[in-house]
Design goal:
Layout (H helix, E strand, L loop, with lengths): L5 E7 L6 H9 L6 E8 L5 H8 L8 E6 L4 H11 L4 E6 L3 E2 L3 H12 L3 E8 L4 E3 L12 H4 L9 E3 L20 H10 L4 E11 L12 H19 L3 H7 L2 H19 L1
Parallel strand pairs: 1-2, 1-4, 2-3, 6-9
Antiparallel strand pairs: 4-8, 5-9, 6-7, 6-8
Helix pairs in contact: 1-2, 7-9
Length: 267
């Protein structure tokens, strides 16, 4: 009996080529107690029309569509957080898609492992390779969020009880690491337990116009350093972080290095 409702929040900006595949993959889920909230973030292509056409095929009674002017990924995700009514939730970008048992596997893993966040491997299906590769026996450690560049993908399953008042930081809207702060806030502040599963994967599309590709190399690394420094500053003095992971010295070194690099860039 699938008693818990799972909210799937789909965000779309100019993804007319891919949004139908994304939504159809949700419609085919083996887990059936689902509500879908679809947000068109002011697309200038025909994404809105494609969404409206596709949701006519939705098997889920609770399928909702929202369309506004372009406000950015984190703003839209916060809208989803405020409107979702599920016991768990999953964010999915409009150019990605999921295997038919994706939701069921993440949900079952959450129950079995008593985990608040369940994440999996990220599969670049075009290049046939994993993004941010993790070994099958990997066990989550907070330090890896710094050392391995935000290993939790935005489409992880989240127990809504652990979210409380946590939101996505609008200062990181449409920036690199736009979701890293969200995960750190859940794990450090709200004591969320994260678990990595190898039983499923997120089918991830790497686009040339994505945040990580849409600027020159020098500018991209500058933004990477700046955003990482900003996020690190927010958690550098967390006593919980020091007590459980003894990372203060490590983060101080990282912070100093990033600031030094930023100074070099500005000069």
């Amino acid at each position: 009996m699938q008693k818990d409702k799972i909210s799937i929040i789909v965000t779309c900006f100019n993804k007319v080529k891919y949004i139908e595949e994304c939504l159809e993959s949700i419609f085919k889920q083996t887990y059936r107690n689902i509500e879908i909230l679809i947000y068109d973030d002011g697309s200038t292509d025909n994404s809105k029309e494609m969404i409206l056409k596709t949701i006519n095929n939705s098997p889920f009674e609770e399928t909702y569509f929202f369309s506004e002017s372009n406000k950015g990924a984190n703003f839209v995700r916060n809208e989803g957080l405020s409107q979702a009514r599920g016991d768990y939730l999953i964010f999915i970008d409009g150019d990605d898609f999921i295997d038919k048992d994706y939701v069921e596997i993440l949900y079952n893993e959450s129950l079995t492992m008593e985990a608040d966040i369940v994440f999996c491997k990220i599969w670049d299906f075009n290049s046939k390779s994993y993004v941010k590769y993790l070994p099958d026996d990997y066990e989550f450690e907070l330090k890896d969020m710094f050392l391995k560049n935000n290993i939790i993908n935005v489409s992880a399953l989240i127990n809504c009880k652990i979210i409380d008042e946590v939101k996505f930081d609008l200062k990181l809207n449409n920036e690199l690491f736009d979701d890293l702060d969200f995960w750190l806030n859940l794990i450090i502040t709200n004591k969320a337990k994260a678990f990595f599963t190898t039983k499923t994967k997120l089918n991830y599309r790497v686009l040339e116009n994505s945040i990580s590709h849409n600027s020159k190399v020098f500018k991209r690394y500058y933004r990477t350093f700046y955003n990482f420094c900003y996020i690190t500053d927010k958690y550098i003095n967390e006593k919980k972080l020091a007590r459980y992971y003894k990372l203060n010295e490590f983060i101080m070194v990282v912070k100093a290095t990033i600031k030094e690099l930023l100074g070099m860039v500005k000069r």
